[in-house]
Design brief:
Radius of gyration: 22 Å
Largest sheet: 7 strands, mixed
Order of helices and strands: HHHEEEHEHEHHEHEEHHEEHEHEHHHH
Bound molecules: glutamic acid
Strand content: 5-15%
Number of domains: 3
CATH topology of the largest domain: Rossmann fold
Number of strands: 12
CATH superfamily of the largest domain: NAD(P)-binding Rossmann-like Domain
Strand order of the largest sheet: 9-8-7-6-10-11-12
């Protein structure tokens, strides 16, 4: 009896594997150059084999085939005039990936690396992240290959207005609600909002999130991704009887996510010894001074290398990858995709890392994740750890709809609860599917199940 049961389980697992592999092969064949997108799909698909083995009835409903095909991909020309009077042309993108559980929701990224593959990987991740938050938001992402580095304020404004002139035709508070991401902060959201209002002729606060407080923004939205990441890591440690207090932490990046992760971590008794920008990193053994980092990056838009001018005991090291050679208890990659490869992961393990929390989207390569899991490092995947930003975006939308503004404490409390719930949901799914504590599998499955149910309920569309 037992062997028969075992055999049928094996067959179901094999059937599920075949199905998932076949869909994966199709996407690689269709778009062979979209390597970032393939990576994001592979990570999810490896987990979803377990779902299709448990629910063979889902196979044949075209779930995965539909899931990997964005509902809509918009690409457009963005022409603008620089300070020298020269015409510049960039590319604009918006991927409206999945609206099964709500309007498309996800940030805009302005960075030279942005292309269809990057936008699709980010949009794909966003589907599961947004589902995990428990809010009614679908998955989308957009951006441009525009490089804000070294651009004047006027150039950023002219580019952004040109970008929104086209984007405004495709978004709306019940349709698609963009926000910020790398290279898009409060200044850019302000220009985007102004141009949307001008194009559409109405004041529609729910069309964008991350807005300024004066025109419909939410308190605690700026802090949300960084704070949320720390709340998640705190839960992850607590579940193993560990505490954040007294731990040494390395944070990569020095943008919005990093700054507020450092702020919350420091408040909870953690020593953050390093952070970085795209040129290099600083190491301050006694704990980095957040006021200096914030002034340099947020106000002066300067390079992190200038930190050592004010703090001569700290070190500046050119190049980013070396940051993962620093020994630490907790690593928080908050910069960008694939910043931790297999080699870096091995160095972190050698340095005694106990936990990794991904503040950025897909900062660890598939091989790196493998290294962490094999070595018993507590690993919080990006779609769970950094979901606090989009979760509070959804709270911003709720406030815009009701016309009421909540206090900082109220939003922060809700954020805290959402992050605890995301951790619990991911943990429960990991247990239910036979991999207790594997939060990659848990987050992927918990995120997927809600979207899958909604897709099945809505018929073949
Ligand atoms: N860009 C952020 C993310 O990766 C926030 C998106 C949003 O608030 O819509 O989740």
């Amino acid at each position: 009896m037992n062997t028969t049961l075992e055999m049928s389980k094996q067959t179901e697992l094999q059937t599920a594997k075949n199905y998932v592999e076949q869909v994966y092969r199709t996407i690689k064949k269709r778009d062979p150059h979209e390597v970032e997108f393939h990576q994001a799909v592979k990570e999810i698909f490896d987990s979803l084999v377990l779902v299709f083995a448990k629910h063979p009835e889902f196979i044949g409903k075209g779930l995965l085939e539909r899931l990997v095909e964005p509902e809509r991909v918009i690409t457009f020309r963005v022409s603008w005039v620089d300070d020298q009077g020269k015409t510049q042309v960039n590319r604009g993108f918006r991927v409206q990936f999945n609206s099964a559980i709500g309007p498309y929701k996800g940030g805009l990224r302005f960075h030279p690396s942005v292309n269809t593959s990057v936008t699709k990987f980010l949009g794909f991740e966003q589907i599961f992240k947004n589902s995990l938050t428990g809010q009614q938001i679908g998955g989308g992402k957009g951006g441009s290959d525009f490089d804000p580095k070294g651009k004047s304020d006027g150039e950023v404004m002219r580019f952004t207005q040109s970008f929104m002139t086209e984007l405004s035709k495709h978004i709306g508070s019940d349709v698609d609600v963009p926000a910020g991401d790398i290279g898009v902060g409060s200044r850019e959201i302000g220009y985007l909002f102004g141009q949307y209002k001008r194009m559409r002729g109405n004041f529609e606060p729910g069309v964008l999130t991350g807005k300024g407080l004066e025109y419909g923004g939410s308190l605690a939205r700026t802090q949300a991704t960084g704070y949320g990441a720390i709340y998640f890591v705190k839960e992850m440690l607590k579940n193993k009887g560990l505490s954040l207090e007294g731990q040494t932490v390395v944070v990569s990046g020095s943008g919005n996510v990093s700054i507020y992760a450092i702020e919350k971590a420091t408040e909870l008794g953690v020593k953050v010894v390093a952070c970085s920008d795209s040129d290099g990193y600083i190491y301050d053994e006694s704990g980095i001074n957040l006021d200096t980092v914030r002034r340099l990056k947020e106000i002066e838009r300067a390079r992190i290398s200038e930190y050592v001018i004010e703090h001569p005991t700290a070190q500046y090291i050119e190049g980013c990858s070396g940051i993962w050679t620093l020994p630490c208890d907790i690593a928080l990659p908050c910069a960008t995709q694939n910043e931790i490869n297999e080699e870096a992961a091995k160095r972190l393990v050698l340095g005694g890392v106990k936990a990794v929390g991904e503040g950025a989207n897909m900062p660890s390569s598939l091989e790196a994740i493998e290294v962490f899991l094999e070595n018993g490092v507590l690993f919080g995947p990006g779609k769970a750890v950094n979901a606090g930003g989009v979760a509070v975006s959804s709270l911003e939308m709720a406030q815009n709809q009701s016309g009421v503004s909540w206090s900082f404490e109220k939003v922060d409390r809700k954020l805290h609860k959402i992050m605890e719930d995301i951790f619990q949901r991911s943990l429960r799914a990991s247990e239910e599917y036979g991999h207790p504590g594997n939060l990659v599998i848990g987050a992927n499955i918990a995120g997927f199940n809600k979207v899958a149910k909604a897709m099945l309920a809505q018929g073949v569309i």
